[in-house]
Amino acid sequence: MTMARLAREHPEQQRLFVAGALFASAGAVFMWRAISETESEKSLDLKNPLDLVAVLKFGILLTVVAALAKLATNLAGSAGTYSIAALAGIADVDAITLSMARLDRGRLGPEAAAIAIGIAVAVNMVSKSILSWWTGGGGFGWRLSLASTLAIASGGLALLLVPTL
Fold first, then answer.
1. What is the pTM assigned to this prediction?
2. Which one, of 116, 33, 107, lies nearest residue 73 by Cα?
3. Cα–Cα dist 128/84, whole Å
4. CB 154 within 8 A of CB 26
5. Residue 56, number of CB atoms within 10 A of its CB
6. Close Cβ partners of 38 (under 8 Å, ≥ 6 residues apart)
7. How many domains would you assign to the chain?
8. Are 95 and 88 in contact (CB under 8 A)?
9. Is the sign of the CA dihedral 97, 101, 103, 105 positive or negative?
10. pLDDT: which is higher, 109 or 84
């Protein structure tokens, strides 16, 4: 929630930080157009996002999620995988995505893996929306929540309209 923290520290550049938070999703297009040139030209004191602690935390998270996904799939099939995807999505989407790519295809088909990733993405967007209200304040939280809701609804609509794999 770095963008939310920066939005609270620099409220005059809030739209810029919402756009930054949304660049991982389709909602960034809407916010990018709303940023004025003067708003994007102001300098900020940013820190290195690739610090060793963050890398180690991700490695641990990936290992734990991969082990839990394999265990849950072996014990409960796709229902277990969906549960782990929802739990993992609270913190991160990358770990469950990589886990689904590595999981034994004999136990879990591509459709179930795609659904698990979709669940993780939706939960992650809700989680980030909640944290954005708390960390970045109402303006930041409202914008990120709206874009996240639209992205989740678009994904759900695509799931309904696109034939099964």
1. 0.68
2. 107
3. 18
4. yes
5. 10
6. none
7. 1
8. yes
9. positive
10. 84
86-125 burial, b at 16+ Cβ within 10 Å, e below that, comes to: bbbbebbbebbbebbeebeeeebeeebbebbbbbbbbbbb
Which range is least confidently modeled, 6-10, 63-67, 80-84, 142-146? 6-10
| HSE-CB of 78 using CA atoms within 13 angstroms | 13
Rounded Cα gap, residues 64 and 84, in angstroms: 11
Calculate the alpha carbon distances from 109 to 96, 118, 122 in Å.
Answer: 15, 14, 20
pLDDT band at 89 (very low <50, low <70, confident <90, very high): very high
What is the mean predicted confidence (pLDDT) over 60-89? 90
